[in-house]
# Entry
Amino acid sequence: MNHSIRILLKSPKFMIGTIVLVLMIAFVLIYPFINTKDPLEMMALAFQPPDSNLLLGSDNFGRDLFLELVYGIRTSMMVGLIAGVCATIIGLIFGLASGYMGGFVDNFLTAITNIFIVIPSFIILILISVSIDSRSSLVTALIIGITSWPWTARAVRAQTTSLRNRDHVNIAKISGHSTSRIILSEILPYIASYVVMAFVLQTASGILSEASISMLGLGPYNTISLGILMNWALVFEAPVAGAWWAFIPAAFSIAVITFSLYLMNTGMDEIFNPKIRS
Amino acid sequence: MSAYSKYFIKKFCWYFLTLVIAVSLNFILPRLIDGNPVSIIVSQVSKGMTDSDTIKQVYDTFMKEFGLDKPMWTQFLIYIKNLFTGDLGTSFGLYPKKVTDILATAVPWTVGLQLPAILVGWILGNILGAVAAYKKGVFDKAIFPVALFVNSIPFFTLAIIMLYIFGLTLKWFPLSGGYDFQMIPQLSFEFIGSVIRHHTLPFLSIVLVTIGGQAIGMREMSIYELNSDYVLYSKLLGIRDRTVSRYVFKNAMLPQITGLALSLGTMIGGSLICEIVFSYPGIGTWLFTAIRQLDYPLISGCTLIIAVSVLLANFTLEIIYGIVDPRIKAAQMEDE
# Structure
């Protein structure tokens, strides 16, 4: 494990992605301690352009957009992370169970996975969000998580199936180890790098899903996320008012976060998957 | 029975089952959460009205349509029966307009925007990805990060930025709608011109993001194929580079068809939100309006039609895939 981390540190793609992400997280965590104002406080006129006082101008309610952006990034990252963890855990359990056990369990779980890969998760996301009246950002994150696991499940199943009949697994079986121990010590270590990569991608897509669903007006309540900022900009016609500062920074932040996550993923892919090294 | 029709029937059964589940989810999810939201929403809708006769009329329409006074099973049967007769209910927000009528006006716009955009983006992305993998060097180093960045921009973000730059600042293209609002839809050059001008920006934003994602996938597939033994062997045999690259392209292309099938749902979802940014008169914009007005029958109609069309598109792609990929035929032959 230590060895692979050392190799990872030499991958420029992985490092750039990680550094950008870490700097961003550090900034949005520290900034609220420096500027302790409430992001929802109205302190200027509507759509004031950026100046030395308001770094990114004000929105339609006259709120400080820079402060809102910081809180928005925080919420969006948190939602993405929780959604990513949730999707990865469900996918991992489904994939391991169906790949390792085989037989009926495998057929059943694979059928479910295939069905939910085809039904757009976006639709299920809308249907559930419409029905839940008061959504916190945690609820939104969980909904995104439970609608986006099929990808991970399918990939983990494929890897587990190929590992199941390897010699070291058979030896562990003959030695009488319990199933849970075999999965933990003979299978998981081999697919760990893959799972981490899937988790990074799930987090990125979780952030994108949150932004899409909030854009539609189905985002979490009583909080600021990047998608909600975009939704406000659209509902209150910021583009028509020429207020680029109301949506370009939020849009750009989403792109930068997901870009650095994708970059990390590509960097890891090139190291753990030697076949695609160019 | 031939191997292919067996493949066809198997796929058909799977997609039919998936369709049944999608329709049931569309019915059951909003009704599962406590205090059947449909009935809550009906009472909310009638709140704004003052005329007691109208309230009663509206209330009766929806009670009858949803069968709220009956048990869940009967409600489901009513729902299915209505689906078969093409009746998706009456809109709350635009009462007494039928949901089917609203969707009928929206579908041509959405199909006209998304189908060409996704296809063009897919083809261009694949060519670009293959070229990047093949040429390597500077070309690859330039294309790859750009594609990765474009791919990490959500559809609507690019749309909103393009709207701001080309619509508002440069004023090259109109800001919203499907055609100039003072025009009457007709078959004249002027009207078609207006449709095309309104079409350009949403079209481009979908194409660009699709290119990004597809180029990355194709590049990876091509690099994988380029490193495989048959390429090395062909090169050692002295087969010309152009012939080898044709083999590589063909082999890398096949998984990309499956890739398109799998990412279709996400793409269509993204493009729907893109429509909202441009207030394009398609399903996405109606969905946006419906959500803001809590127009439950319209929301449900939109999600249903999207789910069904994604399933149909996927099914079509799998059928094509079965014809194109010889391995599928071979696998079916072995089963016999």
User: Anything to note?
Assistant: Chain B has a mean pLDDT of 80.
